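SEVERITY: medium
COMPONENT: batch folding queue
REPORTER: lab tech (J.R.)

DESCRIPTION
The queue accepted two submissions in a row. Attaching both inputs and their returned structure tokens so the on-call engineer can compare them side by side.

ATTACHMENT 1
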Amino acid sequence: MRIRRAVVDAVVGHARREDPMECCGLLIGAGDDVLESRPARNLRRSRTAYLVDPEDHFAAIRAARAAGLAVVGGYHSHPRSLPVPSVTDITGATDPEFLYLIVSLAGTEPEIAAYRIRDGAFREVPLEIP
């Protein structure tokens, strides 16, 4: 997957603004290209869980369609743990083609990783950040 540097920077910025709570949002693109991110409200307002506000999700879908694109994934932060899917992340995953991007703020520098989740198992997706 290719993800623009500006998208990574926006997601990391969102995670930092929401710290110590988890942030969440949607990723918009086409095929293997993530072209933009759309922040969403975390209805859980939690340090360890998130729930994308459906209103924000539908707004992202409408914006993507208007641009001839699609919502290809989502992102959330792990403020104090590694960027690896939690049990909650895995059990909540419903679309095997959806890209799950996690940004960790646990270290001295933010770390990101992306996954696809299928049948209760996750597979890391290599990221190209041009």
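ATTACHMENT 2
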Amino acid sequence: MLKGVHLTLLVGPVVAVPSPQPVVDALTSAQVTTSSGQRSGFQLSFTVAKGSLLETTLLPAGYFDPGIRVILMATVNGIPNVLMDGIVTRQDMAPSNDVGASTVTVTGEDVSVMMDLIEIPGFPFPALPDFARVEVIVAKYTLFGLTPLVIPSALVDVPIPIAEIPSQSGTDLAYVNELARKAGYVFYVDSGPVPGVNVAYWGPEIRIGVPQPALNVNMDAETNVESLSFGFDGLSQEQVVVFIQEPISKIPLPIPIPSISLLKPPLALKPAPKLRLKFLTDTAKLNPVKAALVGLAEAAGGADAVTGNGQLDVLRYGRVLKARGLVGVRGAGSSYDGLYFVKSVTHQIKPGEYKQSFQLAREGLISITPVVPS
């Protein structure tokens, strides 16, 4: 691999252990994609030579069969980064007449895929608000290192058992995602910070914290990205309006809902105008708390107006760019410089090469801060 980059591969049925050196040597490429609010995925490719350990022993023994746990960690300049803790879902074999050209490709998803295997329809959760239901569900997967990080909704609605008993529909993952959608939240599993440990996050997109070193573009010798472009979608923003029924006259009253979240502060000084108007008429039949929750969820789930797409070389950047965090941009001009939320990152690792493709997002133009960390 690259000088300054060391890959560690761990494989096992439930508890993953370091792979034999011949397996690590046979790894020709690794791709890992991490996105906010979505399940992460990975794909590993290996060369399979005749008489090799993979061909004669490991593959027949089910070393990379579906259901096997795989952990991939990249140590860059002495800093370990757990890129993926996942489960193999598919194996592809491509034999070749050329010596040493046969390949095995292993594809999988993060450990949250284990939450999506068994449907549990009708399981009751009496007197439990949504965040408590999520904690109960995630606790069943501690065997895979899942630790819940759950943030209660802005307005907590506790169901009264004599009036309503919420029940699950579908798999654990489908139900948790549905609860997140209704609250305007996201759910994802973040691998690390150490191998075998995973954080199951249920809450709003967190856009606070220490930003990662800036992405520099059009800055001559200080440029550390290979490409970076931006787009501004003027039709992405919506003004959400809910209707609440006045209890005496029964007249529905329209109430505009702002996009508010303590964990999602603005990143731009000039937010995009809300050109669209969206009325949620079904909320008139709900109580005021539930109607407000529906409105807040709809407003929070809106798309970001400004997006950026680019690619960088990890060694030139000096570290691994991580998704689901903040990063600064410099050299793109006064409209597009500043802090961004990293929506997704794809790691592409080959012998002699470690690159990342990434997507950035924020709600408008012009930075809220005069400088960003370099």
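NOTES FROM REPORTER
DSSP finds six helices and 21 strands in the chain.
No errors were logged for either attachment.
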